[in-house]
Amino acid sequence: MNKTSIPQIDSIERQWYLVDAENQTLGRLATEVAAVLRGKNNPNFTPHLDTGDFVVVVNADKIRVTGKKSTQKLYRRHSGRPGGMKTETFEALQERIPERIVEKAIKGMLPHNALGRQMYRKLKVYKGSEHPHSAQKPQTLELSSSASAQ
Predict the structure, then answer these.
(1) pLDDT digit string, tens, across residues 21-44
(2) What is the pTM assigned to this prediction?
(3) 74-78 and 139-140: which strand pairing?
(4) Which domains does the chain have, with CATH numbers?
(5) Among the four residues 53, 105, 116, 140, which has the most C-beta atoms within 10 Å?
């Protein structure tokens, strides 16, 4: 009888990956980054453990969306006070905080529990091409989606 092996938490070696979001479609980039954060690209993937890797996303201000989403897609947040709902379009949020667009898309594709929050902490998103994680020597992650289809 064969037993399923479960990796020990301290034996998991986490890689660092660098993703350039320039001219990438938002949803296609988010699905692939979420899969790496979960660890689905590793042979020792276990659904109830955090076996994923670190991901650094740069050029978040140059992300693309298809169709009329740039003017019609809305981002909502609430202060918790009565009448505290704030609504903002994709264009306005991209001008103000482009990192939040990528973070929110990826966070929505992770599990909605404590494990998902732990995976989300391994995501680092930056507006420009500069990032402070060069000491970790991140490998460039090639995405299978193509931005030339637009």
Answers:
(1) 999 999 999 999 999 999 999 999
(2) 0.91
(3) unpaired
(4) 14-65+97-144 (3.90.1180.10)
(5) 53
By CB atoms closer than 10 A (0-12, 13-18, 19+), residue 91 is middle
Structure tokens at 139: 């490998």
Asked if residue 7 lies in contact with residue 112, where contact means CB atoms within 8 angstroms, the answer is no
Sign of CA dihedral 133, 139, 144, 147: positive
Beta strands in the chain (DSSP E): 16-20, 54-58, 74-78, 85-89, 123-125, 139-140
Give the C-alpha separation, 56 to 33, whole Å. Answer: 9
Mean pLDDT of 64-82: 97
- Please tell me the distance from the alpha carbon of residue 8 to that of residue 12, in angstroms, as a whole number: 7
Which residues pair with residue 56 across a beta bridge? Answer: 18, 124
